[in-house]
Amino acid sequence: CVMTWSKIRNGDLQSPSQILNDYSLQKFSLSTQQNSLIEEHIGADCIEHEDQRAPMLTSDEFILGGAYTIQHQKENPFAGFVYGRLGVKKIEAFNKGLTPRVRGQFLHQALFELLKNTKGQIDLSSWTLPEKSKRISDALDKSIKLFDEHTDDSYKEILSLEKNRLFKVLLKYLDTELDRPSFIIKGLEKEVFYEKYGVKLKFRIDRIDQLNNNELLIIDYKSSSEDKRILSKDRTVHDVQPFLYKDTQSVPVAGLLFITLNSKKIAKRGAGYGWTKQQKLDDPEELISCSKEVDVIVKSFAKGDIRIPLFGQKESSKESRPLAILTRF
Questions:
Q1: Which residues have CB under 8 Å from 327's CB, separation 6+?
Q2: Which range has the worst mean pLDDT, 31-45, 76-90, 107-121, 203-217?
Q3: C-alpha–C-alpha distance, residues 38 and 31, integer Å
Q4: Residue 292 scores a pLDDT above 60
Q5: In sequence order, what DSSP letters do the residues of 257-302 get, joined into one string?
């Protein structure tokens, strides 16, 4: 039985699955220095260096998962292949009450209804507190209808509690929009198309604002309990999604912004500029360098990179464990 694993390739050191530790195995490296030792044990004719890649992406191939697939490719290339190209899906975990997906959809729909007839900050600043309350209530009433049809009384009650929670969240959120530099809302739930290196994806951008200098600020809403960030502490790419959105725009993009809305706080984290009056842009080339970083990830996906990084990023470890054995035999 021959067991193989990926070599080092533009990333972390690879190793075999940990389940092999239970067996008495002799491990040989396929480095140049040790080829003679391997030849002695198994014969030179038996040695084969396998570059573990999937077939390159074809022009007629349909990619599943959208931006999540490219995020998987960043953290664990084999996961990008499994979920994006093979179409494997995870079974949604059981949740008491509303699932995170329904909570997120409810929030996004309510924000769309609230802002769809709003031109921008000038309109928002003119709303009195009673008017804000009425507009939020109307938006939530319209949105809840998408989720309470054909449901029982218990589920309707849970939706009603969520509606009350979102009312308070959205009221706080509108106040934070007045602290930004002036803006015009140019698009809500806008469908866009991405294509690079043969990778074709369709996205729906939550919101696009136009700033005073006519550049754009791309906004994505998050409903999780934890703040979502676009950049890591070292100012490299943490989340690829907004950079993929950026590449669909023909107008210059000034900034990318995640807005996390939950009951505790409204958190804004981004890259570039355009969402705070005091913000100073330390690195004007940051968006360009990060976009190039994402380009490398997209290109590796198209070329069939299926490495599994067993060391390094914490994000990759959860994906690596259940998928590792699939590449071993």
A1: 5, 6, 52, 78, 306, 308
A2: 31-45
A3: 10
A4: yes
A5: EEEEE-SS-EEEEEEESSS-SS---S-TTHHHHHHHHHHHHHHHHH
Instruction: Look up residue 101 and give its two tokens.
Output: 């997906």
Question: What is the DSSP pairing of strand 199-210 with strand 266-272?
Answer: unpaired
Q: What is the mean pLDDT of the chain?
A: 83
Q: Average pLDDT for residues 253-270, to the nearest whole number? A: 93
The backbone torsions φ and ψ at residue 296, rounded to the nearest 5 degrees and listed phi first, read -60, -40
pTM, rounded to two decimals: 0.78
Kindly give, in sequence order, each residue whose CB lies less than 8 Å from that of residue 281, ignoring residues fewer than 6 positions away.
272, 273
Whether the Cβ atoms of residue 271 and residue 290 lie closer than 8 Å to each other: yes
Instruction: State CA 310 to chain mean position distance.
Output: 21
- Listed in sequence order, the residues at least 6 apart from 151 whose beta carbon sits closer than 8 Å to its beta carbon are 159
Count of helices and strands (H, E) across the chain: 10, 5
3-state SS assignment for residue 177: helix
The answer to whether 146 touches 163, Cβ cutoff 8 Å, is no
pLDDT tens sequence across 29-51: 544 444 555 555 555 555 554 55
Closest to 28 in 3D by CA, of 1, 36, 18: 36
Sheet holding 253-261, edge to edge: 184-196, 199-210, 216-222, 253-261, 266-272
Residues 6+ away with beta carbon under 8 Å from 19: 325
* 3-class secondary structure, 312: coil
Residues contacting residue 181 through CB under 8 Å, at least 6 positions apart: 211, 212, 274, 275, 276, 277
